[in-house]
Design a protein that fits this description.
Radius of gyration: 21 Å
Strand content: 5-15%
Strand order of the largest sheet: 1-2-4-3-5-6-7-8
Helix content: 25-40%
Number of strands: 8
Structural class: alpha/beta
Oligomer: single chain
Largest sheet: 8 strands, mixed
Order of helices and strands: HEEEEHEHEHHHHHEHEHH
Length: 351
Amino acid sequence: MQAPDPVRRLCVAALPAAALAGLSLPMGASAATASSKPAAPAVKTGGVQMVPIQTAKGTFRVWTKRVGPSTGHAPRIRLLLLHGGPGATHEYFEAFESFLPQAGIEFIYYDQLGSAYSDQPDDPSLVDLPRYVDEVEQVRRALGLGPKDFYLLGHSWGGLLAVEYALQHQQHLKGLVISNMVASIPEYNRYAHEVLMPAMDQGALKQILALEKEGRFEDPQYEELLMKHFYVQHVLRMPEDQWPEPVLRSFSRLNRKIYVPMQGPSEMGASGKLERWDRIADLPRIQVPTLAIGAQHDTMEPAQMQLIAKRVRRGRYLHCPNGAHMALYDDQATYMTGLIRFLKDVDAGRA
């Protein structure tokens, strides 16, 4: 989802490399000297870990952070979050902090390469779906996630990425959540043109399409029209001045150098590299327990999200009747209750 102005400015300072390395010896100290002293305690980082990612263009770092209950025991459920965009950030997932730790669930924030707290190489060749799938696998290995405890949740674009990851690496997964994403971009485009656009104020739609034809995607008028006639109906069903701060903060960092090549510049459908992506026929290959989350007012067709649950081998569907694309906020009780129930059921062997 494209973010409304002024919520689209990307400004991130990379952490210094020295802060990411392990403890180093004091200047002038030898290994022998250091080994004769008691081992220094590990530096606490609040759960933050920068993960090196190997690519064809070199090594980069992505930001992750563990959040979970302080029980003193290893968590049985570890949920890695894949944010949307492409090119948004983990920050809109902050609502999970009010629900998951209290349920004994650990979750892991993760900014994909090019997003906010992670490195942002300006190289179009890295904006590629197979490379992102490999990145998720590298993050999994670095964090020590595996089939006994590894759950993956992808929202929007992150849901697409989660489908691709599961099709290639499901042997490492214990459970999968595909949130507010269909399994076919052509179906997403069909729904937009056949259902959502005809239901819009036609005068406003005419203005939006005229601005798109002129390439005026950065025009404040374009953003105002989208907010009034599309976003508050199908993205987050709250008045603009009540949108949660984590959502605004996340979308303010949207990296359009990633978003536009993958999704395309228009909010009336996808036209980028993902335009022909379709995995409906491959869904039966996914055998791990899978929760598909849909919402009545989403930009994605609810029936297509329910289809995911029907086609995978061990699927469940959670419908948010009052929600839109950001159902984790505008139908929050339904979303969080259903998500926690699914995770607990998988852990207990009930899914």
